Amino acid sequence: MKNKEKYRRMRRPCKIVCVLYCVFVTSLYIIIFYEDTNSIRNIDIELYNSEKPYVTYFTNVTFSSQNEKRVAIWTTFFRSHSWLNQINAVFSGCVHKCRAVDASGVASSDAILFHYQRNDLNVQRLPKRNPDQIWIIYLLEPTTYIERNIEQLNGLFNWTMSYRKDSSVLAPYGSFVKRKVKPTFKPPLKRRHFAFAVFSRCNDNGKRYRIVKELQKYIDVDIYGSCGHKKCDTKTQGCLSTEKAQNYLFRLSFENTHCKDYVTEKLWFSLKQGVIPVVNWAKEQLETRVNSSHVINLYDFATLKDLANYLKSLAVNETLYKSYFSWRDYLDVETSHFHSFCSLCEKLHQHTMQRQVYSDLNGWVSNDICPRYRVGKIVP
To answer: Which long-range contacts (CB under 8 A, 24 or more apart) does 297-303 make?
Structure first.
């Protein structure tokens, strides 16, 4: 009996410890994995591998000072050959002289341009390497949707050209330019609809569809594209014409993923068309070229209901609404993917530069705040 009593006394503290441990683990699980749809948390994720060197540098090299630089276009652009003419159209207006040629002109070109996309870049079919040529990889896709194993591209490319600010040549989806023509602006009180969104991916890393469905409890939102009940005008860049877009007060210009510097045409189309963009930018996504007074970030609000109430207040305050477009008096918006090719041309005209190669392109691409794509699914 004494032994049984002693055993019971010994088991009591163990039970308490086990219960406390279970409570702790359960609480931790809830904190980490539970998502309150109405609560908005700003995403603050540290970059990993940020100190790792991805580029190998060599001694300085002096290039020829020829008047015109030639860029050979080796790949298609989303299976289309039309980008050669579009690039040349941009080159024609640059300060420095550059010309794009097709793949037959590779041998006599100063640089070779490759578009990174699964259906465009064939690693088994690359041109013969000339060490005096600059190989440039052009990336528009965010890390989340890059489906290829990037390690096979290590050591191939000298420059990167993408929306990321740490690229060799910065190529954002849009930019501000000096205005030449006086803008038209439909008064907010004459706009018949409240807000719209355009989605082609219904299940994405940015959880756009889930957020919009919750917002629809408080405000009217029309959803265009394959995820919505309204169809886009396929002949119109950005889904809606400016005339139709200005029937709305707001566009929910949500990105499909929270990758570093990933701010796409969704923002720039909104600004161009005179509709206030509501964005979902995380900390490392903040678009420094756009003043905070130009956009509304949902992560600046404690809840989606608070965001909806603010949008309602703007809808009935014409002065406050118009204040988001004060920049339109002197600035216009460029929305072409190719507007940054003058920057590439200028860089090619540098007389002397340090030779380099992306020896770890995979590491550079992976140095991001969003997850990587793996075999048909998104994983951290």
So the answer is: 298/40, 298/211, 299/40, 299/41, 299/42, 299/43, 301/40, 302/39, 302/40, 303/38, 303/39, 303/40
Residue 86: half-sphere exposure toward Cβ, Cα within 13 Å: 11
Output the pLDDT for position 298: 92
Determine how many CB atoms are found less than 10 A away from the CB of residue 306: 15
Structure tokens at 303: 């809840």
Whole-structure pTM value: 0.81
Whole-number pLDDT of residue 20: 53
Between CA 234 and CA 236 the distance in angstroms is 6
- Maximum distance among all Cα pairs of the chain, rounded to whole angstroms: 102
- Side chain identity, residue 48: Y
Nearest Cα residue to 137 out of 102, 100, 165, 111: 111
Spatial CB neighbours of 22, under 8 Å, sequence gap ≥ 6: none
The whole-number mean pLDDT for each consecutive block of 10 residues of the chain, a chain of 380 residues, reads 51 54 44 43 39 80 81 93 92 96 94 92 91 93 83 94 94 92 89 93 77 94 88 82 95 91 92 94 75 87 95 95 92 90 95 89 90 48
CA dist 150 and 137 (Å) reads 12
SS3 45: coil
User: What is the 3-state secondary structure of 103-153?
Assistant: HHHHHHCCEEEEECCCCCCCCCCCCCCCCCCEEEEEECCCHHHCCCCHHHH
Burial class (CB in 10 A: 0-12, 13-18, 19+), 358: buried
Domains within the chain, CATH numbers bracketed: 56-171+337-379 (no CATH), 176-334 (3.40.50.11660)
d(CA 242, CA 252): 16
- Pairwise CA distance, residues 379 & 112, whole Å: 33
E runs forming strands in 148-272: 159-162, 169-170, 175-178, 193-198, 221-224, 248-252
Closest CA to 96 of 348, 338, 339: 348
Within 8 A by CB and 6+ apart from 179, the residues are 328, 329, 330, 331, 332
Residue 62 neighbours by CB under 8 Å, 6+ apart: 351, 352
